Amino acid sequence: MADLVSREADQIDRNTFKKERSFRTAITTSDIIEQINKDQHIQKNQHDEEIFHTEGNEIETKAEDKQQKIFQEKKQTDYNSDDEGLLQENQDKSILENFSKSSVCSICKSRRPNNECQRKFNYEELEAATEGFSIMYSLSEGEYGPAFKGQLDNKLKIAIKKIQVTSLQEEKLFISEVKLLTAARHENLVMLLGSCLRENKLLIVYEYACNGSLDQYLSRKSGRLLTWRERMKIAIGISNGLKYLHDNNIIHGRVKPSNILLNHDYTPLLGDFVFRTERHELKNSCKDKSFRNCGYTAPEYQESGKLSTKADVYSFGAVLLELITGCMVSDKISGQKCLIERARPLLGGREYLQLMDPEISSSYDEEQLASLVLVTEKCLRKNPKERFTMNMVRKVTEKLLHVYACVRLSLEAIHQKIKLTETS
């Protein structure tokens, strides 16, 4: 009798899963395509695709209502311009997102800092935290200055970036931007804790991420392969962080795996923003034909050196491609084009299986892969006007996650019923 009940329960489970699978496929495919078509129509009719906006009546959420109130008296701003007033307009506005609870890493139990950790630092305490900026505490030698890890007296682990300041005007601009970014709070952004000025050096203090950066996992340096679920979590987290920045008129400017930090739960944290002073230096670099960052840098940025939200979108698309393929755009293959150019025909033709990382080819989800490939292709369009915005990306991922949440809840309910049947 027990065996009969078990067999019947298994049959119910399989039949219901098939129905849920069919339901999921029908909804995700049609809804995503329909939403994309609507969003592209909206985008083409915008006067300036880089201006912050709410997209008509397509989405009316509380978050957008809040943003509309914040910016209702703000003049439209061209993201492609170098309007020096942008920072001043924003720095007095609160862009603090609800972040009252400090999240704790489930593995190492390290706690993310909260608002109370944000303050002015003095040089002596930062020097003590790094044992005199010892080479043992070195994290990297960045393009614009070295970075160190350290630990404060209260046991809080931090990362410190040293930037050389060459003039009083540059100093004021850096401090202004630090003030702005200190107010930016989101679960997928590295928290800027404060700064310290010593002679001609600006020291910027960030929270420390406990599990390295994404490039270590993509290059297999960690010795551990990212699962499909972890890749999806990272992709969605990055998109959430970028959408938050763009909604608040902040351009990241340097979206790439080495600037995407992780905790042991594989929650991504965007860090190492490009400061406005650094942008002027980047312009000069981009004008130099020897400057090449195949993949992460948008074509129009290489030509003009002007940053925009759409340049961020392109960089995000490059990271998505890396998560799908398991390859890095910086990998050089003799006699072949870079990863993005090799992948373009496959992205356009929706050749999912040829794009998928063979190391996890048996564990990915077809619907999620199809959606990621679609988003990646739209983000990597050479013409910035044809690219998705981060709002559009978020709509696709939200819809996909909603459907999968419904499926998981349904299946969990089924399994619970089966357990009750077996015990009765």
- How many domain units? 2
Helix content: 40-55%
Structural class: alpha+beta
Average predicted local confidence, pLDDT: 76
* Low-pLDDT windows of residues: 16-27, 47-96, 287-292
Global outline = globular
**Main sheet summary:** 5 strands, antiparallel
* CATH level-4 homologous superfamily of the largest domain: Transferase(Phosphotransferase) domain 1
Number of helices in the DSSP assignment: 14
CATH topology of the largest domain: Transferase(Phosphotransferase), domain 1
Annotated CATH architecture of the largest domain: Orthogonal Bundle
Helix and strand run: HHHHEEEHEEHHEEHHHHHHH
Over all CA atoms, what is the radius of gyration?
A: 23 Å
Percent of residues in beta strands? 5-15%
Give the spatial strand order of the biggest sheet: 1-2-3-5-4
Distance between the terminal alpha carbons, to the nearest Å?
11 Å
The CATH C-level class name of the largest domain: Mainly Alpha
* Record field, number of beta strands: 7
GO molecular function: ATP binding; protein kinase activity
Keywords: ATP-binding, Nucleotide-binding, Transferase
Protein name: Protein kinase domain-containing protein
Organism: Medicago truncatula (Barrel medic)
